[in-house]
Structures are given as structure tokens and as C-alpha cells.
Automatic annotation (TrEMBL), chain A:
Pfam families (alphabetical): SBP_bac_1
PROSITE patterns recorded: PROKAR_LIPOPROTEIN
Keywords carried by this UniProt record: Cell membrane, Coiled coil, Lipoprotein, Membrane, Palmitate, Signal
Coiled coil start-end: 423-450
Biased composition (Polar residues): 34-48
Record protein name field: Carbohydrate ABC transporter substrate-binding protein (CUT1 family)
Automatic annotation (TrEMBL), chain B:
InterPro entries, per the entry: ABC_transporter_permease, MetI-like, MetI-like_sf
Major localization class: membrane
Membrane topology according to the record: Multi-pass membrane protein
Keywords, alphabetical: Cell membrane, Membrane, Transmembrane, Transmembrane helix, Transport
GO biological process, one term: transmembrane transport
Organism: Cohnella lupini
Highest taxon of the lineage: Bacteria
Compartment annotation: Cell membrane
Family as reported in the entry's similarity comment: Belongs to the binding-protein-dependent transport system permease family.
Protein name as annotated: Carbohydrate ABC transporter membrane protein 1 (CUT1 family)
ABC transmembrane type-1 domain segment(s): 77-291
Regions crossing the membrane: 12-37, 81-102, 114-134, 217-237, 270-290
GO cellular component entries: plasma membrane
Length: 451, 303
């Protein structure tokens, strides 16, 4: 029968097509390879040798700086444009060409372009990707520019600036900046007769208050602090622990201090249940739980402020996150970097310096409530402090004193993912804290190269 | 004279084929072979190629060795197999059943056929979000029905390492069933009703007619669907990424393509990822070749 023979032929054709699609799956990644192979000499002449002093000979020439970013997408685009206008007014010979790519596509696009030798002159990177880029040598060392322009580093928050150096080389400047602190529901505290958080709080007071609030009602929880990599690397330091040994040559993930830290976090979920399990959350976001008035305390970032100011109907405030043996707080920052092969590196530096450390850009940021600038200008920060709620905005800056930075490891994302999986195993009770960290230690030692 | 016309004909054919051939070459064939080259390197996917300076370094079968010796590959393969073992029988049964139902002359049968096909047209992003809600622990309808009908306290599906993969299987079946049912329906309609009549007169009941007439005559379709499903299963990806963000409760829904994507674009190990995808290719190729051999035993192309 003709029809059936046709089916057989169709079967074979479709199989061949599908099999080749699989390979194309990996092939898709290779478009960049195909492009880059066309320009193998692009990296033959790294402009890194072109020192800023050389290029500074012709400052009057008109140049165009291409700037790639993801944080200026959507609502924030207009603020980035304001910064661009202010900059171009100050530097009439430099034109900025802004290219905004949505966050979801940003890093694959940037990877392709860097590999093809077509990266923008200056671009934005989140911390995770910054480490990989820096360690792979595709970013320009900006220290020579700091020296050439006698840049005053004290205008920037030191930890934020340090976060964008690797192996003693400064590869970027902090663009925006958001730190993490304790946000609490004042009304639930009053109801539970618990004392309000202070700067002297430690884990004990923290957990006691959480227990009191949890006792109020079956559907009210004391605290939410996600059990994941970013919280964990900070929390172990509150307990004098660390993920790496002092000279950063070996993992120390399953040290007694770390196990104790994780045990506490797990107990909060599974034993005292002051923190909801995944099942109890059942898809409700942690912020939504807080906004619904069902959560006493939440450890989250200042980026929650604008949402909470609009949508929280009860009284709330903030405090520095409690520590244990010592205080440690963490932050998220997006860095601004310069492409190693940029032909207009000097102008690119002027632009990222402006974005990162100028008073004008900082003011635009503060006025817009677009995260925080990483700057230290008291008058700019004054404006930020005046806005309420929260009344205790000062805690945002008090927290900076205790900032810790994540470990600088080339395989950063992979490390964070591996540790994350083991942390979840513990948080759901599938493994004990000790077992989970033993397994994490083993897997990290196997898979992650340290130097 | 004839020669000239022949040449013209060839030229026309070539011209018409050229655009798609170029597309195929540039976007499929060349990248496929490129990925094979990359799979023998330690390329990180970030540094431009500069062979003179040793970027990237050719490391022979180093990536393949590392993948096959590591524990991760086997764990991921096991997850994929878990999916296949659940998915294949269910999708075959579901699509045959749906095809039989849709092969009747109800009123507005066209409408039913369209309804069955709608999930196929839905984007995976939307479908996955719907299923996330359906399967949610406290307020999801699936658990509500389970407890109402059977008094079972349903699991937290996508948050549970045992049940996350079955949850993804359900969503996939819902989504894929319409497409495969359509193929089966085509097969059913090609069966000559005379066979059924003859069997009916001989006193064969419904089950006999189904196993002795429908299944054998549908076997080319079943074979086609089986192969498509196995290939699809090995390529499982969007469901996993959206329904169980970042591969679920401690990696219980980590599957091959998810790993390949992470290695290539998140962990900056393009060489390793390319090797991984070639291993995946070999696995699928082997599975398909075995199926092609085995089909002689059960697929009837001639009635």
C-alpha cells in the first residue's frame, strides 16, 4: 500500500531530522565558534598592551563608546538615559551608545559576542559572571586608569569596589548596589509581645522572636531566610566558619562551624518550623507571605523597599541582620567592566567611572529609587535616608560595616549550584546537615578547581 | 536541444534549493561539525579562538573520559530513563485511546479534535506554569481531587524528589497527546472497515478486534510515535527548566539537555558541553538503530 510505504519513508525522514536537531542543540552554541574562527587574530593583538597613557594622547577626538547592560531594561531605561545625557554634557567628545538586553538573554548573548571578539566597549556583569569573565582574561585591568586619573577610591564603598577585583587586579567598578538586611513586621512583634530587633541581636534573640511569632497562629511564620548559597556563605561567617581555607586552596564546607550553621537553618524549618517548608509555602513567594502579614521577619535586600512601601499595609521596619560569633552581612552588586580589546578603553573608563562613582549618577539613582549607588557622598545618601518607611533606614548603611564578599572562584556558578543542591537536600530533611555538607565537600573538591 | 532543457531544469532545481540549503549548512550542518571539533577541546566558550596561543587546547577524548567516569552523567541518565519508563507507555496508551475516541462520528467531532490538539499549540512556558499550579501542594486541583476521591494526601509534586519527575511526565503527556493522537487517528482511518465487519461476523469481540486488527494495522504509526517519543524524551528540557526551576528538588530532574545548557552557558565549559551533546547523540542514535532492527518483529507495513 502506497500510504504505508509513505509512512515508513516519513518515519525515516523525521528520525533523521530529529537526530540532527539534537546535535544542533549543541550546534546552536557553536554559532559563536563559527564566527570567532573567522577572526582568530582578534585576540592576537590584545589591546591590553595599549596602556591608557598611550591612548590619552588624543583626548579631543570624538569617540563612541558602546555600552551593554541589562539593568536598564523596562522602567529603569529612562534613568539610564538621564545618566547618559548628564555624561555626554560633561564629555562632549564622547558619545555613548546604549544597548540594553533583557536579563534572560543577556549572558548568553554577551558570551557569544565576547567569544566572537565583538563585545561592547563597556558592559555590565552580575557578580557570578564577573568572576568567570575576569578569571578567563577577557576584561581590562582598570588599575592603570585609576592611577592615570588619580581616582579617589574613597568615593566608593570599599567592599563593593573590592568585589570586582580578582587576584589583586581591579577588573570592574560597582554599578548598582543592594545589601541584605532584616525586615520585620512591627505589628506581629507587638501581638507576640516580642522585643523589637536591635543592632545587638544575635541568632538567639532572632530565633526566640521567631518562635514567639510562630506561636501566634498556625498560618503565621516567624522568619524567612532562604537556605541557598548566597545566604549560606554569609551565615557561616557569622558563625566564624568559611567555605574555603585561609589561603583559598581547599574547601572547608563540612567544618563543625558550618554544620552547626546549617543545622540551625534546617531546624528552623523542620523542627521549630518558625520558617515555612516548601510545601507550606506551596508556591507563595516569600515577599507575598510578608506582605500578607503572615511573616514576622524576612531577610532580604533593599530592593524590596519600593514594593513594600507601596504594598505593605502594616507598620514595618528594618534592622542590621543579627550575627552569632560575629556579624556578617552580604550584598549584591552589578559590576561595570571594560572589554580587554576595546579601542576606546579610556573613554569607556570615563563612562563607567561616571556611572559608578559620580555624584550626578548617584543622585539620579537615589531619586529614582533604583537600587543604591555604591558611593559614599554623605549629601546624596542623606536624601536616601529621609524617605520612609522604613524609619530605620540608617540600618542599610550600618550593615555595610559588616559586609563580606563571596569567594572568588573561576567556576563560581557551578560551585554555587552544587552547594545549593546539597543545602536543599538538608533543608528538606532528606539528609542530615552533616551528611549534606560532607557530600557537598566531596563533590566540590572533585569538580571545582581552586587556582 | 534536450540537453539545454535539462540543464535549465537542473538550474531551476538548484536555485530553488539554494536558500534552504544555505540555511541548513550555516545553522545546522556546520555547527554540528563544529561542535564535534569543540568537543575535543577545553574551550570555555568565552575566549576567542587563537590556536597559535593554545586557545582552546585540544585535549583529545579528555572531556568524554571525564563525563563517562564522573557520577553526574550516570545520575542524569538515570533521571532521563525514569522519565522514559513513565512517559512512553502512558503516551502510547493515551494517544491510542484518544485516537479511538476521536475516530467516531459524534456530532461536532471536529471540535473535539481541535480541543485535543490545543495543548500541542500552547507554548511550553504557559503549559508549564499551568501545571505548576495544577500540581501545587496546598491549593492545586490535582491534590484536591486525590483527597476528595481517594482520600489520599497528595505529595508536594514538584517540590518532592520522588514525585517531581512524574509531575513533569503528566504535563508532557497532556501536552504531547494531541499530536500523537492525530497521527494515530490517521492510521485508524486508513484501516479498511471490511476487516472489522468480517471479524464481527466471525464473532470477535471488541478486545479481539482491537488486538488482532487495530494494533497490527496501526503498528507503523505506533513505531513512528515510539521513536519520536524516545528522541523527545532524551531531549527533555523546557518542562524541567520552567516547572522545576534549575532542575528541581536537589537535582532530581536534572536531565541531559539541561546539563548541556548549564555547562555551555552558565559554567563556561563549552568543550565539555559539546562532548556531552555528542554522547547524547550517540545514545539516541543507538536507541533508534535498535528500534529499527526490532521493528521487523512487530511492525506490519503491508496489510
Amino acid at each position: 500500500m502506497v500510504k504505508l510505504r509513505f509512512v515508513k519513508a516519513l518515519t525515516i525522514i523525521v528520525i533523521i531530522a530529529m537526530v540532527s536537531v539534537i546535535a544542533a542543540c549543541s550546534g546552536g552554541n557553536d554559532k559563536n565558534a563559527a564566527e570567532s574562527s573567522g577572526t582568530p587574530s582578534a585576540s592576537d593583538s590584545p589591546k591590553a598592551s595599549e596602556s591608557p597613557k598611550e591612548t590619552s594622547e588624543a583626548p579631543e577626538e570624538n569617540v563612541t563608546v558602546k555600552f551593554g547592560n541589562f539593568s536598564g531594561a523596562g522602567d529603569t531605561a529612562k534613568y539610564l538615559t538621564q545618566m547618559q545625557e548628564a555624561f555626554e554634557k560633561e564629555h562632549p567628545n564622547i558619545k555613548i551608545e546604549i544597548e540594553t538586553i533583557a536579563y534572560g538573554d543577556y549572558f548568553t548573548q554577551m558570551q557569544t559576542r565576547v567569544a566572537a571578539g565583538q563585545a561592547p566597549d563597556a558592559y555590565e556583569l552580575n557578580y557570578e559572571n564577573f568572576v568567570s569573565y575576569a578569571k578567563k582574561g577577557v576584561l581590562l585591568d582598570i588599575n592603570p586608569f585609576f592611577e592615570a586619573t588619580q581616582f579617589d577610591k574613597s568615593t566608593l564603598n570599599q567592599q563593593a569596589l573590592n568585589a570586582f577585583s580578582a587576584d589583586g587586579t581591579q577588573y570592574g567598578m560597582p554599578g548598582s548596589f543592594s545589601n541584605v538586611l532584616l525586615i520585620y513586621n512591627k505589628e506581629l512583634f507587638a501581638e507576640a509581645n516580642a522585643e523589637l530587633p536591635t543592632n545587638d541581636w544575635t541568632w538567639k534573640e532572632f530565633d526566640d522572636a521567631a518562635a514567639k511569632i510562630r506561636a501566634l497562629d498556625k498560618n503565621t511564620f516567624g522568619v524567612f531566610q532562604p537556605i541557598q548559597f548566597h545566604e549560606f556563605y554569609k551565615l557561616v561567617q557569622q558563625n566564624d566558619g568559611s567555605l574555603l581555607n585561609a589561603d583559598k586552596t581547599a574547601f572547608t564546607v563540612n567544618s563543625p562551624e558550618n554544620v552547626e550553621t546549617l543545622q540551625r537553618l534546617v531546624d528552623r524549618v523542620l523542627k521549630s518550623n518558625v520558617m515555612p517548608t516548601q510545601a507550606q509555602l506551596s508556591g507563595v513567594g516569600d515577599w507575598d507571605l510578608f506582605k500578607a502579614g503572615r511573616l514576622g521577619m524576612i531577610v532580604t535586600g533593599v530592593w524590596a523597599f519600593s514594593d513594600f512601601m507601596q504594598n505593605v499595609k502594616f507598620e514595618w521596619d528594618v534592622a542590621v541582620e543579627p550575627g552569632n560569633k560575629k556579624k556578617a552581612t552580604h550584598f549584591f552588586s552589578n559590576g561595570l567592566v571594560i572589554n580587554k580589546d576595546s579601542k576606546v578603553a579610556e573613554a569607556a573608563f570615563e563612562w563607567i567611572k561616571f556611572l559608578s562613582s559620580s555624584k550626578e549618577a548617584a543622585k539620579i539613582r537615589v531619586d529614582a529609587g533604583w537600587e543604591l549607588p555604591a558611593v559614599t557622598y554623605p549629601d546624596v545618601l542623606e536624601a536616601y535616608l529621609k524617605t520612609t518607611p522604613p524609619a530605620n533606614r540608617q540600618a542599610v548603611f550600618d550593615s555595610l560595616e559588616f559586609l563580606v564578599t563571596p569567594p572568588v572562584i573561576e567556576q563560581f556558578t557551578e560551585m554555587a549550584d552544587i552547594l545549593g543542591i546539597h543545602l536543599t537536600a538538608a533543608s528538606e530533611g532528606a539528609k542530615s546537615a552533616q551528611e549534606a555538607l560532607d557530600d557537598a565537600q566531596k563533590e566540590l573538591t572533585d569538580k571545582i578547581k581552586l587556582q | 536541444m534536450r540537453n539545454k532543457r535539462d540543464r535549465m531544469k537542473w538550474l531551476t532545481i538548484v536555485l530553488f534549493l539554494l536558500p534552504s540549503t544555505i540555511g541548513l549548512l550555516v545553522f545546522s550542518i556546520i555547527p554540528i561539525f563544529y561542535s564535534l571539533i569543540i568537543s575535543f577541546t577545553d574551550w570555555n566558550g568565552l575566549n576567542p579562538w587563537n590556536l597559535a596561543a593554545g586557545t582552546p587546547d585540544f585535549i583529545g577524548f579528555g572531556n568524554f573520559k571525564a563525563i563517562l567516569e564522573g557520577e553526574e552523567f550516570w545520575r542524569v541518565l538515570k533521571n532521563t530513563m525514569y522519565y522514559i519508563v513513565l512517559y512512553i507507555p502512558l503516551i502510547l496508551a493515551a494517544s491510542v485511546l484518544a485516537a479511538i475516541l476521536l475516530n467516531n462520528a459524534y456530532r461536532a467531532i471536529g471540535l473535539y479534535r481541535v480541543i485535543f490538539f490545543i495543548p500541542v499549540l500552547t507554548s511550553w512556558v504557559a503549559a508549564a506554569l499551568i501545571w505548576k499550579w495544577l500540581l501545587s501542594d496546598d491549593y492545586g486541583p490535582v491534590n484536591a481531587i486525590l483527597s476528595f476521591v481517594a482520600g489520599i494526601d497528595g505529595p508536594a509534586w514538584l517540590q518532592d524528589r520522588t514525585w517531581a519527575m512524574p509531575g513533569i511526565v503528566f504535563a508532557s503527556i497532556w501536552k504531547d497527546m494531541g499530536f500523537f493522537a492525530l497521527i494515530m487517528l490517521g492510521g485508524l482511518q486508513a484501516i479498511n472497515p471490511a476487516y472489522y465487519e468480517a471479524a464481527h461476523i466471525d464473532g470477535a469481540n471488541f478486545w479481539k478486534r482491537f488486538t488482532r486488527i487495530t494494533i497490527p494495522l496501526l503498528s507503523p504509526m505506533l513505531f513512528f510515535v515510539l521513536i519520536m517519543c524516545i528522541i523527545n524524551s532524551f531531549q527533555l528540557f523546557p518542562q524541567v527548566m520552567i516547572m522545576t526551576q534549575d532542575a528541581g528538588p536537589y537535582g532530581s530532574t536534572q536531565v541531559m539537555v539541561e546539563r548541556i545548557y548549564k555547562f555551555a552557558f552558565k559554567y563556561y565549559k563549552m568543550g565539555y558541553a559539546s562532548s556531552f551533546s555528542w554522547i547524547l547523540f550517540v545514545i539516541i542514535f543507538a536507541f533508534t538503530a535498535i528500534q529499527m532492527k526490532l521493528q521487523k518483529k512487530w511492525v506490519h507495513y503491508d496489510s
